[in-house]
Design goal:
The chain is α+β, with helices and mostly antiparallel strands. Helix content is 26%, strand content 29%.
Protein backbone atom coordinates (compact mmCIF):
# COMPACT_ATOMS: atom_id res chain seq x y z
CA UNK A 1 0.00 0.00 0.00
CA UNK A 2 1.27 3.53 -0.72
CA UNK A 3 2.33 5.54 2.32
CA UNK A 4 -0.72 7.78 1.90
CA UNK A 5 -4.00 6.71 0.36
CA UNK A 6 -7.75 7.24 0.54
CA UNK A 7 -10.71 4.91 1.05
CA UNK A 8 -14.48 5.11 1.07
CA UNK A 9 -14.55 3.21 4.37
CA UNK A 10 -11.98 2.50 7.05
CA UNK A 11 -13.05 -0.15 9.56
CA UNK A 12 -11.33 -0.47 12.92
CA UNK A 13 -11.25 -4.09 14.04
CA UNK A 14 -10.69 -7.35 12.17
CA UNK A 15 -13.10 -9.62 13.99
CA UNK A 16 -16.41 -11.08 12.83
CA UNK A 17 -18.08 -7.66 12.70
CA UNK A 18 -15.29 -5.74 10.98
CA UNK A 19 -14.34 -8.34 8.37
CA UNK A 20 -17.96 -9.24 7.58
CA UNK A 21 -18.77 -5.59 6.97
CA UNK A 22 -15.62 -5.08 4.91
CA UNK A 23 -16.67 -8.06 2.80
CA UNK A 24 -20.16 -6.69 2.19
CA UNK A 25 -18.90 -3.21 1.32
CA UNK A 26 -16.26 -4.57 -1.04
CA UNK A 27 -18.89 -6.71 -2.75
CA UNK A 28 -20.69 -3.45 -3.54
CA UNK A 29 -17.63 -1.86 -5.11
CA UNK A 30 -16.49 0.29 -2.18
CA UNK A 31 -12.82 0.86 -1.40
CA UNK A 32 -12.20 -0.52 2.10
CA UNK A 33 -9.32 -0.58 4.56
CA UNK A 34 -9.46 -2.67 7.74
CA UNK A 35 -7.11 -1.60 10.53
CA UNK A 36 -6.46 -4.05 13.38
CA UNK A 37 -4.50 -3.17 16.51
CA UNK A 38 -3.28 -6.75 16.98
CA UNK A 39 -3.84 -9.66 14.59
CA UNK A 40 -6.83 -11.07 12.73
CA UNK A 41 -9.44 -12.30 15.21
CA UNK A 42 -7.43 -11.16 18.23
CA UNK A 43 -10.47 -10.38 20.38
CA UNK A 44 -13.58 -12.31 21.29
CA UNK A 45 -14.11 -13.30 17.65
CA UNK A 46 -11.00 -15.47 17.70
CA UNK A 47 -12.48 -18.31 19.70
CA UNK A 48 -10.92 -21.66 18.71
CA UNK A 49 -14.24 -23.33 17.90
CA UNK A 50 -17.76 -21.94 17.57
CA UNK A 51 -21.10 -23.08 16.25
CA UNK A 52 -23.74 -21.87 13.84
CA UNK A 53 -26.67 -23.00 15.96
CA UNK A 54 -30.09 -21.42 15.31
CA UNK A 55 -31.67 -22.89 18.50
CA UNK A 56 -30.22 -21.17 21.54
CA UNK A 57 -30.85 -20.71 25.24
CA UNK A 58 -32.37 -23.17 27.67
CA UNK A 59 -35.56 -23.43 25.63
CA UNK A 60 -33.73 -23.81 22.32
CA UNK A 61 -35.41 -20.66 21.04
CA UNK A 62 -35.14 -19.93 17.34
CA UNK A 63 -32.69 -17.10 16.81
CA UNK A 64 -33.72 -13.76 15.36
CA UNK A 65 -34.06 -13.92 11.54
CA UNK A 66 -32.58 -17.40 11.65
CA UNK A 67 -33.22 -18.35 8.02
CA UNK A 68 -31.57 -15.21 6.60
CA UNK A 69 -28.64 -15.38 9.03
CA UNK A 70 -28.01 -19.06 8.36
CA UNK A 71 -28.05 -18.58 4.60
CA UNK A 72 -25.61 -15.66 4.77
CA UNK A 73 -23.00 -17.40 6.94
CA UNK A 74 -23.32 -20.70 5.05
CA UNK A 75 -22.67 -18.97 1.74
CA UNK A 76 -19.74 -17.02 3.15
CA UNK A 77 -18.07 -20.08 4.64
CA UNK A 78 -18.25 -21.78 1.26
CA UNK A 79 -17.03 -18.65 -0.52
CA UNK A 80 -13.82 -18.25 1.46
CA UNK A 81 -13.03 -21.96 2.00
CA UNK A 82 -10.54 -22.03 -0.93
CA UNK A 83 -8.49 -19.34 0.84
CA UNK A 84 -7.46 -21.66 3.67
CA UNK A 85 -5.04 -24.58 3.53
CA UNK A 86 -7.06 -26.43 6.16
CA UNK A 87 -10.73 -27.35 6.58
CA UNK A 88 -12.21 -24.89 9.05
CA UNK A 89 -15.92 -25.79 9.13
CA UNK A 90 -18.25 -28.73 8.80
CA UNK A 91 -22.02 -29.19 8.85
CA UNK A 92 -21.85 -31.92 11.46
CA UNK A 93 -25.08 -31.12 13.31
CA UNK A 94 -25.84 -30.04 16.87
CA UNK A 95 -27.33 -32.37 19.50
CA UNK A 96 -29.32 -30.71 22.30
CA UNK A 97 -30.07 -33.17 25.12
CA UNK A 98 -32.35 -32.05 27.95
CA UNK A 99 -30.60 -32.47 31.30
CA UNK A 100 -33.75 -32.22 33.44
CA UNK A 101 -37.47 -32.87 33.07
CA UNK A 102 -38.13 -29.13 33.31
CA UNK A 103 -35.73 -28.33 30.46
CA UNK A 104 -37.26 -31.12 28.35
CA UNK A 105 -40.74 -29.64 28.83
CA UNK A 106 -39.59 -26.15 27.93
CA UNK A 107 -37.71 -27.30 24.84
CA UNK A 108 -40.62 -29.43 23.66
CA UNK A 109 -43.12 -26.61 24.24
CA UNK A 110 -40.91 -24.13 22.40
CA UNK A 111 -40.55 -26.50 19.47
CA UNK A 112 -44.32 -26.97 19.17
CA UNK A 113 -45.05 -23.24 18.96
CA UNK A 114 -42.19 -22.31 16.60
CA UNK A 115 -42.24 -22.50 12.82
CA UNK A 116 -39.02 -24.03 11.55
CA UNK A 117 -37.89 -24.72 7.97
CA UNK A 118 -38.29 -28.38 6.97
CA UNK A 119 -35.54 -30.70 8.24
CA UNK A 120 -33.86 -28.06 10.38
CA UNK A 121 -34.79 -29.56 13.74
CA UNK A 122 -36.17 -32.83 15.12
CA UNK A 123 -37.36 -33.99 18.53
CA UNK A 124 -35.67 -37.19 19.69
CA UNK A 125 -36.72 -39.36 22.60
CA UNK A 126 -34.31 -40.02 25.44
CA UNK A 127 -33.65 -43.47 24.00
CA UNK A 128 -32.94 -42.04 20.55
CA UNK A 129 -30.50 -39.47 21.90
CA UNK A 130 -28.66 -42.06 23.98
CA UNK A 131 -28.49 -44.36 20.97
CA UNK A 132 -27.07 -41.52 18.88
CA UNK A 133 -24.59 -40.61 21.60
CA UNK A 134 -23.90 -43.37 24.16
CA UNK A 135 -22.88 -42.08 27.57
CA UNK A 136 -24.56 -38.69 27.24
CA UNK A 137 -26.73 -37.35 30.05
CA UNK A 138 -30.31 -36.95 28.84
CA UNK A 139 -33.70 -36.75 30.56
CA UNK A 140 -36.92 -37.14 28.55
CA UNK A 141 -35.40 -36.37 25.14
CA UNK A 142 -34.02 -33.41 23.29
CA UNK A 143 -33.31 -31.93 19.88
CA UNK A 144 -31.22 -32.78 16.85
CA UNK A 145 -30.32 -30.00 14.41
CA UNK A 146 -28.67 -31.57 11.36
CA UNK A 147 -28.01 -28.11 9.90
CA UNK A 148 -25.68 -27.12 12.76
CA UNK A 149 -22.23 -26.03 11.62
CA UNK A 150 -19.03 -26.16 13.65
CA UNK A 151 -16.43 -23.52 12.75
CA UNK A 152 -12.80 -22.92 13.59
CA UNK A 153 -13.48 -19.21 13.84
CA UNK A 154 -9.87 -18.07 13.79
CA UNK A 155 -9.19 -19.95 10.55
CA UNK A 156 -12.43 -18.63 9.08
CA UNK A 157 -11.40 -15.05 9.80
CA UNK A 158 -7.93 -15.66 8.39
CA UNK A 159 -9.47 -17.11 5.21
CA UNK A 160 -11.89 -14.18 4.98
CA UNK A 161 -9.00 -11.74 5.38
CA UNK A 162 -7.06 -13.54 2.62
CA UNK A 163 -10.09 -13.33 0.36
CA UNK A 164 -10.56 -9.64 1.13
CA UNK A 165 -6.90 -8.83 0.51
CA UNK A 166 -7.56 -9.25 -3.22
CA UNK A 167 -9.84 -6.20 -3.27
CA UNK A 168 -9.26 -4.40 0.03
CA UNK A 169 -6.42 -3.34 2.33
CA UNK A 170 -5.87 -4.99 5.72
CA UNK A 171 -3.35 -3.59 8.18
CA UNK A 172 -2.48 -5.57 11.32
CA UNK A 173 -0.49 -4.68 14.47
CA UNK A 174 -1.25 -1.00 13.98
CA UNK A 175 -1.17 1.76 16.57
CA UNK A 176 -3.27 4.59 15.22
CA UNK A 177 -4.00 8.23 15.82
CA UNK A 178 -7.32 9.62 14.63
CA UNK A 179 -8.09 13.07 13.33
CA UNK A 180 -11.33 14.40 11.89
CA UNK A 181 -10.74 16.75 8.97
CA UNK A 182 -14.01 18.48 8.15
CA UNK A 183 -16.47 15.68 7.47
CA UNK A 184 -13.76 13.13 6.68
CA UNK A 185 -11.20 11.21 8.73
CA UNK A 186 -7.44 10.82 8.76
CA UNK A 187 -5.62 7.95 10.44
CA UNK A 188 -1.92 7.90 11.18
CA UNK A 189 0.01 4.67 11.70
CA UNK A 190 3.75 4.12 11.95
CA UNK A 191 4.02 3.65 8.19
CA UNK A 192 0.88 5.12 6.63
CA UNK A 193 -1.41 8.11 6.49
CA UNK A 194 -4.93 6.93 5.63
CA UNK A 195 -7.76 9.19 4.52
CA UNK A 196 -11.30 7.94 4.94
CA UNK A 197 -14.67 9.30 3.94
CA UNK A 198 -16.30 7.09 6.58
CA UNK A 199 -14.92 5.57 9.79
CA UNK A 200 -16.50 2.51 11.43
CA UNK A 201 -15.68 1.24 14.91
CA UNK A 202 -15.92 -2.56 15.12
CA UNK A 203 -13.48 -2.93 17.99
CA UNK A 204 -15.67 -4.76 20.50
CA UNK A 205 -14.50 -4.58 24.11
CA UNK A 206 -12.31 -1.50 23.63
CA UNK A 207 -15.44 0.53 22.89
CA UNK A 208 -16.77 0.10 26.43
CA UNK A 209 -14.64 2.93 27.83
CA UNK A 210 -14.18 4.95 24.65
CA UNK A 211 -15.36 8.55 25.20
CA UNK A 212 -17.11 8.71 21.83
CA UNK A 213 -19.25 5.66 22.58
CA UNK A 214 -19.87 5.89 26.33
CA UNK A 215 -23.56 6.62 25.78
CA UNK A 216 -24.03 3.03 24.60
CA UNK A 217 -25.05 0.50 27.30
CA UNK A 218 -22.39 -2.02 26.32
CA UNK A 219 -21.92 -4.79 28.87
CA UNK A 220 -18.69 -6.82 28.73
CA UNK A 221 -18.82 -10.54 29.50
CA UNK A 222 -15.63 -12.54 29.81
CA UNK A 223 -15.80 -16.03 28.39
CA UNK A 224 -13.24 -18.79 28.83
CA UNK A 225 -13.07 -21.87 26.64
CA UNK A 226 -11.10 -25.07 27.21
CA UNK A 227 -9.69 -27.35 24.52
CA UNK A 228 -9.35 -31.00 25.50
CA UNK A 229 -7.83 -34.12 24.00
CA UNK A 230 -9.33 -37.50 24.97
CA UNK A 231 -7.09 -40.48 25.67
CA UNK A 232 -8.63 -42.23 22.66
CA UNK A 233 -10.43 -40.94 19.54
CA UNK A 234 -13.92 -39.53 19.96
CA UNK A 235 -16.76 -41.84 18.98
CA UNK A 236 -18.92 -38.96 17.70
CA UNK A 237 -18.47 -36.20 15.14
CA UNK A 238 -21.40 -33.89 15.94
CA UNK A 239 -21.26 -30.94 18.32
CA UNK A 240 -23.40 -30.58 21.43
CA UNK A 241 -25.33 -27.70 22.97
CA UNK A 242 -26.07 -28.46 26.60
CA UNK A 243 -24.43 -26.57 29.43
CA UNK A 244 -22.55 -24.26 27.15
CA UNK A 245 -21.35 -26.18 24.12
CA UNK A 246 -19.03 -29.00 23.16
CA UNK A 247 -17.65 -28.42 19.66
CA UNK A 248 -15.45 -30.64 17.53
CA UNK A 249 -14.01 -30.75 14.04
CA UNK A 250 -11.88 -33.86 14.58
CA UNK A 251 -11.89 -37.12 16.52
CA UNK A 252 -8.93 -36.22 18.72
CA UNK A 253 -9.78 -32.74 20.03
CA UNK A 254 -12.83 -30.82 21.23
CA UNK A 255 -13.66 -27.53 22.89
CA UNK A 256 -15.88 -26.93 25.91
CA UNK A 257 -17.34 -23.47 26.33
CA UNK A 258 -18.04 -21.15 27.90
CA UNK A 259 -17.86 -19.31 31.17
CA UNK A 260 -20.03 -16.20 31.53
CA UNK A 261 -18.10 -13.86 33.81
CA UNK A 262 -19.90 -10.55 34.24
CA UNK A 263 -17.35 -9.37 36.82
CA UNK A 264 -13.69 -9.94 36.05
CA UNK A 265 -10.36 -8.38 36.94
CA UNK A 266 -8.25 -9.43 33.96
CA UNK A 267 -8.44 -11.06 30.55
CA UNK A 268 -6.37 -14.12 31.41
CA UNK A 269 -7.40 -17.76 31.60
CA UNK A 270 -7.31 -19.28 35.07
CA UNK A 271 -7.91 -22.39 37.16
CA UNK A 272 -11.45 -21.26 37.88
CA UNK A 273 -12.19 -21.36 34.17
CA UNK A 274 -10.87 -24.89 33.73
CA UNK A 275 -12.75 -26.17 36.80
CA UNK A 276 -15.99 -24.50 35.71
CA UNK A 277 -15.74 -25.91 32.20
CA UNK A 278 -14.79 -29.39 33.42
CA UNK A 279 -17.87 -29.39 35.63
CA UNK A 280 -20.03 -28.49 32.62
CA UNK A 281 -18.44 -31.26 30.58
CA UNK A 282 -18.85 -33.75 33.43
CA UNK A 283 -22.55 -32.96 33.73
CA UNK A 284 -23.16 -33.76 30.05
CA UNK A 285 -20.50 -36.36 29.25
CA UNK A 286 -19.13 -37.72 32.56
CA UNK A 287 -17.13 -40.56 31.01
CA UNK A 288 -15.44 -38.25 28.50
CA UNK A 289 -14.51 -35.70 31.15
CA UNK A 290 -12.69 -38.35 33.18
CA UNK A 291 -10.32 -39.08 30.30
CA UNK A 292 -9.90 -35.61 28.80
CA UNK A 293 -6.61 -33.75 29.05
CA UNK A 294 -6.53 -29.96 28.89
CA UNK A 295 -4.32 -28.86 25.98
CA UNK A 296 -5.32 -25.24 25.54
CA UNK A 297 -7.37 -22.53 27.18
CA UNK A 298 -8.67 -19.30 25.67
CA UNK A 299 -10.38 -16.18 27.00
CA UNK A 300 -12.12 -13.27 25.32
CA UNK A 301 -14.63 -10.55 26.17
CA UNK A 302 -17.92 -10.38 24.31
CA UNK A 303 -20.13 -7.31 24.29
CA UNK A 304 -23.82 -7.60 25.15
CA UNK A 305 -26.64 -5.05 25.06
CA UNK A 306 -29.93 -4.83 26.98
CA UNK A 307 -31.90 -6.58 24.21
CA UNK A 308 -28.96 -8.85 23.33
CA UNK A 309 -28.90 -7.52 19.80
CA UNK A 310 -25.96 -5.86 18.02
CA UNK A 311 -25.56 -2.11 17.55
CA UNK A 312 -25.45 -0.63 14.04
CA UNK A 313 -25.62 2.98 12.98
CA UNK A 314 -24.21 6.48 12.91
CA UNK A 315 -22.78 8.39 15.83
CA UNK A 316 -25.36 11.03 16.88
CA UNK A 317 -22.90 13.94 16.96
CA UNK A 318 -19.97 13.16 14.65
CA UNK A 319 -20.05 13.19 10.87
CA UNK A 320 -19.36 9.96 9.01
CA UNK A 321 -18.64 7.99 12.19
CA UNK A 322 -20.36 4.64 12.65
CA UNK A 323 -20.22 1.47 14.71
CA UNK A 324 -20.87 -2.25 14.32
CA UNK A 325 -20.60 -3.96 17.69
CA UNK A 326 -22.41 -6.12 20.24
CA UNK A 327 -22.59 -9.39 18.28
CA UNK A 328 -22.24 -11.21 21.61
CA UNK A 329 -22.29 -15.00 21.45
CA UNK A 330 -24.10 -15.01 18.09
CA UNK A 331 -21.37 -13.49 15.97
CA UNK A 332 -21.35 -16.35 13.48
CA UNK A 333 -25.13 -16.26 13.11
CA UNK A 334 -25.53 -12.50 12.85
CA UNK A 335 -22.24 -11.25 11.39
CA UNK A 336 -22.59 -11.57 7.63
CA UNK A 337 -26.37 -11.10 7.38
CA UNK A 338 -26.27 -7.87 9.37
CA UNK A 339 -23.21 -6.72 7.43
CA UNK A 340 -25.26 -7.02 4.22
CA UNK A 341 -28.14 -5.16 5.87
CA UNK A 342 -25.80 -2.47 7.19
CA UNK A 343 -24.30 -1.97 3.74
CA UNK A 344 -27.76 -1.22 2.35
CA UNK A 345 -28.08 1.47 5.01
CA UNK A 346 -24.60 2.93 4.48
CA UNK A 347 -24.83 3.09 0.70
CA UNK A 348 -28.54 3.58 0.04
CA UNK A 349 -29.85 4.92 3.35
CA UNK A 350 -32.24 2.00 3.75
CA UNK A 351 -33.69 1.91 7.28
CA UNK A 352 -31.97 -0.29 9.84
CA UNK A 353 -33.94 -2.89 11.75
CA UNK A 354 -35.26 -1.27 14.91
CA UNK A 355 -33.86 -4.09 17.05
CA UNK A 356 -30.26 -3.25 16.07
CA UNK A 357 -30.44 0.47 15.30
CA UNK A 358 -28.15 2.62 17.45
CA UNK A 359 -30.98 5.14 17.80
CA UNK A 360 -32.61 2.92 20.40
CA UNK A 361 -29.95 4.15 22.85
CA UNK A 362 -29.84 7.81 21.96
CA UNK A 363 -31.42 10.32 24.31
CA UNK A 364 -34.60 11.89 23.00
Amino acid sequence: MPHSTSFDFVILGAGLAGLSLADSLAERGQSVCVVEAYEIGAGASGTPLGMVNPATGRRATKTWRAEQCYRAISENLQKVAPYSDATFFRQNGVLRPALTEKIARKMSSQLEKTTWPPDWIHWLTEEEIKAKHPGITCVNGGLWLPIGITVDVTRYLQALASYLSETSTIIEDADIELEQTGRNWRLYTEHYTINATNLIFATGYSMVNHPWWNFLPLHPIKGQLAVFEPDEPLSFDHSISSLGYIATLSNNRFAQGSTYEHDFDDLETDDYGEEYLRNKLKRTLPELESRAKLVDQWAGVRISTPNRKPVLGKHPDRDNLYTYTGLGSKGLMYGKFLANHYTDYLLNNKPLFEEVNIQRFEES
